[in-house]
Amino acid sequence: MILEIDIGNTRMKWRCLREGVVRGRGSVVEGEYEEWVALIEKEYRPRLIRLACVTNKDSLEWVRELARRWRCELRVAQTSIAVGAVRCGYDEPSSMGVDRWLAIIAAYHQFKCACVVVDAGSAITVDLVRGDGRHIGGYIVPGFGMMQKALFQGTSKVSVVLDKSTGIAPGGSTQEAVSHGCLLMIKTMVDSAAKDLACTEPLVQIVVTGGDADSLVGVLGGKVEHVPELVMDGLNIAVP
Q1: Could you give the CA distance from residue 3 to residue 22 in angstroms, rounded to a whole number?
Q2: Would you write out the chain's pLDDT as a tens digit for each of its 240 residues?
Q3: What pLDDT score does 157 carry?
Q4: DSSP string, the chain
Q5: Are 115 and 108 in contact (CB under 8 A)?
Q6: Residues 6, 58, 99, 212: which is the catalytic one?
Q7: Rounded distance, CA 226 to CA 220, Å?
Q8: Using an 8 Å Cβ cutoff, are 60 and 76 in contact?
Q9: Catalytic: 91?
Q10: Which of 111, 158, 119 is closest to 138 using CA atoms?
Q11: What pTM, to 2 d.p., does this model score?
């Protein structure tokens, strides 16, 4: 059994594979880790762990300890200059979050064309990849929840419940005006990135992942695909 783990800023996603077939998957937040460990030990004891970790060293050490406890191999993904045809656009690849790098690798490997890779999580990242696999850079902005909280905290008269919207029409209430406005801002950025790539590329695929992907997919233009486990798909390629 192979256990793949993606530790992000707010939750940990995981899946277990046997002979390339997913046998179990899920997500865990802090406070549920002991229950999750018991589940893995009972149902999915691994021989190999593949790890993507963007949080602190404590999380990495926790997984190292699990690997020792389960007597299995641990392979930790790191951002590199290149994986196959995909080349990192950063002058210092190590400064790019490994989750972004894995998503880029997976998107290009799956679609084999120019891509706009969007990870809509706590922060929203947008990365551009040419048809030859060259990553040309990207953007990082606050996620939907962070945007709305910042607005609520900075204004005395805007105080509504956080909303996961799927619309971009002018809001008929303060809540809609905020949620639709945040969604429209991200849509505009992603569509603009795809338009820029299309100036030199015959085919551009938009690939969306992350916890808020559902809100974004329905409003984007062009060729759009939602791939929920894009980062772990990248793990399978980068650390086979």
Answers
A1: 10
A2: 999 999 988 889 999 999 989 999 999 998 899 999 999 999 999 999 999 998 778 899 999 999 999 999 999 999 999 999 999 999 999 999 999 999 999 999 999 999 999 999 989 999 999 999 999 999 999 998 888 888 777 666 555 555 566 788 998 888 888 889 999 999 999 999 999 999 999 999 999 999 999 989 989 988 899 999 999 999 999 998
A3: 57
A4: -EEEEEE-SS-EEEEEEETTEEEEEEEE-TT-HHHHHHHHHHH---SEEEEEE-S-HHHHHHHHHHHHHHT-EEEE----SEETTEE---SSGGGS-HHHHHHHHHHHHHH-SEEEEEEESSEEEEEEE-TTSBEEEEEEEE-HHHHHHHHHHH-SS-----------SPPSSHHHHHHHHHHHHHHHHHHHHHHHHHTT-S-EEEEEESTTHHHHHTT--SEEEE-TTHHHHHHHHH--
A5: yes
A6: 99
A7: 11
A8: yes
A9: no
A10: 119
A11: 0.92
- In the structure encoding, which two tokens stand for residue 229, read together? 């486990």
Q: Residue holding tokens 């559902």?
A: 214
Number of residues assigned to the chain = 240
Output the six-digit token pair for 239: 């650390």
Contact residues for 194 (Cβ-Cβ < 8 A; gap 6+)? 116, 204, 206, 221, 222
